[in-house]
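QA checklist item 7 of 12: single-chain prediction sanity check.
[x] sequence parsed
[x] length recorded as 676
[x] structure emitted
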Amino acid sequence: MNRRHRNGRRTRKLILMAFLAMAVLALPAAAQDGSVSGTVYDREGGALPGVTVSLQDADGEDTGKSAQTDASGAFRIDGVADGAYTATASLQGFRSLIATVEVSGGTGSVEFALGLSVVEQIVVQGEIGEENVLRRPMTVTGFNEGMVVELGMNNNNDLEALTPGLQIGHQSPDSGHGNHLYLRGIGSQRNQEFFQATAVATYVDGIYTDELYALEPGNLFDVESMNVARGPQGTTGGRAAIAGAISFNTIKPTAQFDVNALAEYTDQASQRGDLAIGGPIGDSRVSWRLTAGSWQGEGAQPNIGPGGDYDEPDNVHWAPQLRYLGETVDFNVRYAGREDSGAPRTSVELTGRDVTTECLLTGTDPEGNPTCLFPNPFLGAANQAPSVRDCDLSDPNQLICPGDDLRNVVDYNTPGNEDSELQMAVADLNIRPSRGLSLSYKGGYRETTENAQTDTDGTSRVGGPDNPFLDANGYPFADTMTNYFRYSEQTSHELRLASSFAGDFQFVLGAFQRDGDEPYDARFFDFANPAFNTNTLATCQGLLPFFGLPLLSDFGTTSRQSGQGGVWSCPGELLDWSNAGAIGAFSDGNMNGHWLDFYGHSRFETLAYYGNLEYQVGDRWTLFGGIRHDQDIKTHVQNDVRIGINFGFAVDLWIFRNAAVEGFEGKNDAEWNQTT
């Protein structure tokens, strides 16, 4: 009995010990019943399927646990104990991201927003929404964030050098109406819409603009992608363009905190510093990003004269952003500002000067005496322009200086000044109402002011001590200057419904609207011509009968009587003409060198409706079609010119063409409708 009792107690003890051992062994398993879950997006807020998310412990050792995201970008890693971990998200074509995650109470969560890698994938805005350019036979040159950094791209000049078929016109205000873009040899002579539409459409964050000023956001810092589509953009979104389209897309805020910085010092003694910083706001779905920078430096075009160097950068830029990224809604708001001062770039001479011919154009005065109507402004100049001084100009057949001998040096007495600024606001809303459909809206406001002054005569000669209109050696000389003022205010809206079905059929439907207002004033000065810098009012009025013209009494009467296609006047008479507030009136008859002025003012509106369909037939064939209707409306509010004429005997006449005068209005309104 006692032995059996002892055996029974021993058996119960063994069973109890076995249960205790099983409980102890089960403790780690119970502690590892937790999980890490989350979602992986691209930087546009779209879900990324097929992303591998792996887990490492606090020491960086691989735990052997991983998962892939599903079609909605979601993932879940099970069997994770409480503690601190590092999660890594990776997908071919994208930059891998690492984030810390804390598992507490059996759960932990993390979100990723992957950016593109250097070369594997380039996303463009194509006919059917966003797509990988490597998967579609399009004539597109694309650059993503990694390529911009690796290639050291800083501005549009770098984009031009790396893009086949792209040419960017002279961006100097003394080049007439510069700032024009060409693709495959097709472009527009002006960046203002006074005549034809712009041949190359340009976009910043999806917002169309015809202004090249400040087109590269932040000098290409913090830019996620750029693409240049060559060829007519007829049925796509945005604005139709005959030559092609250029798009710039900046980096949006993400759910991860990050910092991006750039510092640069060049052999032209220019200093550039940029900073981008951003991340989430608490535990909300709202994130922020702030980009700012400065570019300062000495002039890239040295000036041997007293006017100071040209092509001297001096600008600052800033761009705050806010973004809400929900399950089905992605809303981003971005403001961008930029201010420029310093000195603009200018033209250099390519050929030698005639420094021996005294008069370039002869004529006679009212008494029939011979007179020089156009003295040679380079007569007696001691040297050729510094840009060609290293060239052999002795051969009369050598018209243009060889490139190897040409120097980017100027000789100016007038400083170059720039006072330009940009304000831009973008609202970008994307809604996914159901799987396979996306509804997007882009609204933008862009305001630019360009005000630049340059020396245009190419010499630093000034008046001598005895006569302000002759140099120190007694020769006539050139002293000219231009001042260009451009203002542009543009507003645009675009609504777009696009599909991304799993099947063979896809479509896009959209509408685009844009309106704007662009006044323009080009002023030309000649400080070495006596007729434009002295009071010639009395002399001019006394000689009006010699030209068969009456004294100016009112615009309408004089215009009809003269029959010359404009208003004839003497300087100082027109105190109430329509542009007096913009460029000044000279009541004393002294034009102060201001002898020519062009003033224009246009308003415009574009309406467009478009639709595209695509159907995949098997593995090798795709059927695609699109239709688009455009309506362009242009209004010339004002289109004036003011020209001073010097007859060589100290008498100056104005010829005005003024839109405020009956019979001399600006160009008629134009409306164009076309279905493509």
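[x] summary fact logged: The radius of gyration is 35 Å.
[ ] second reviewer sign-off
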